[in-house]
């Protein structure tokens, strides 16, 4: 999803940079939410 947003922004003339960051939500919260799994 981030790559698609960056591609669109670059096509509009913006400079972009993708960064990887650690997940901040607790693992229990991720596992409990089907939309996040």
UniProtKB/TrEMBL annotation:
Highest taxon in the source lineage: Bacteria
Membrane-spanning intervals of the chain: none
UniProt-annotated stretches for the region Disordered: 1-37
UniProt xrefs under InterPro entries: Flavoprotein-like_sf
Sequence ranges of Low complexity compositional bias: 1-14
Listed name of the protein: NAD(P)H dehydrogenase
Species this chain originates from: Thermocrispum agreste
């Amino acid at each position: 999803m981030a790559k698609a947003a960056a591609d669109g922004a670059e096509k509009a003339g913006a400079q972009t940079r993708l960064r990887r960051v650690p997940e901040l939500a607790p693992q229990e919260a991720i596992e409990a939410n089907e939309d996040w799994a």
